[in-house]
Amino acid sequence: MKYLTVLFLLSLGTVHAQIADYFTTEFLLGGKLNSENLIADYKGYDFSRIWTKTENSNVYGVIGEDHQRLRLKLITVEKNPFDSTEYIIYGKSMVKNTICDFTGVIRINEVRTFNEFHFGVDNEYEQAGIKSQGILIGAYEFRENRDQVHSGVFKGELSARWYLNKDDQMFYDDIQLATDGYVNNAFIGVWRSYSSNNEKLCNWGDYRVPMANEGFDIGAAELSVSDKYRDKGWEDTGSENTLLNMRVKWWE
Fold first, then answer.
1. Is 110 within 8 Å of 97 (Cβ atoms)?
2. pLDDT band at residue 244, thresholds of 50, 70 and 90?
3. Coil, helix or strand for 71?
4. How many helices (H) and strands (E) are present in the chain, helices listed first?
């Protein structure tokens, strides 16, 4: 039993290292971070709007090795008035036709800045008065309602891109949205069933699915799901369906 426990802990450590590497490489789109964790310097800022900015039609998630489509909506995000690193969450999830509501927390562990600003296509944000720009890294745990069918717990790590303007206003950083591979609000972890304790990988993000299976997303400028996975709930994705999907508010 001790041998199996050690193997399990080593596996968890490997997964954590892979996620940390993703947040500080691919997620940055070529940018470089300063090494210092500035979380104490940013405790007075409210990051809550970052997680509710994107239209839900552009939030893509997968659950399980077969990458069944997960839809997830953070409906309210509020900064804990007693803990500047914690945000209180209410939202809903949908897999196939099953919808569950959930509550939980996001806890910020790191706030790190880029050592050089990025200003977008043709430097369109160069005169926008950007004061600082960076990412936050943290952990999340969202607990679905136990009274609902097929419910469980989402748990893992996350990263989000932000920038601060000259007026000390915090913004969701979509300046590089036109860049191939752009993703924001990357959530990477697992979902664990209440009834069976079985775990499934569960990742989601804005505009792309972070750390998806190789060959899942074959798009360049935008998400394009390969035919291998289309029957897992991805039939209606693509630019031709964007307006239709924006009108579908499944969480209401």
1. no
2. low
3. strand
4. 2, 9
Q: What tokens were used for 222?
A: 């935008």
Distance separating alpha carbons of residues 132 and 158, to the nearest angstrom: 20
> Burial, 242: exposed, middle or buried (Cβ in 10 Å; 0-12, 13-18, 19+)?
middle
Strand (E) or helix (H) holding 20: helix 2-23
Residue type, 132: S
> Which of 9-18, 128-137, 162-171, 180-189 shows the lowest per-residue confidence on average (mean pLDDT)?
9-18
Q: Measured between alpha carbons, how far apart are the two ends of the chain, in Å?
A: 47
**Chain centroid offset of residue 45 CA:** 20
28 vs 184: CA distance, rounded Å: 10
Rg of the chain (C-alpha set): 18
Q: In terms of Cα–Cα distance, which of 184, 203, 191, 190 is closest to 53?
A: 184
Quick check: 115 pLDDT over 80? yes
Q: Distance between CA 233 and CA 138 in Å, rounded?
A: 29
**Amino acid letter, residue 9:** L
Which residues touch 23 (CB under 8 Å, ≥6 apart)? Answer: 135, 137, 157, 159, 186
pLDDT 10s digits, 31-87: 999 999 999 999 999 999 999 999 999 999 999 999 999 999 999 999 999 999 999
**Whole-angstrom distance, CA of residue 85 vs CA of residue 109:** 7
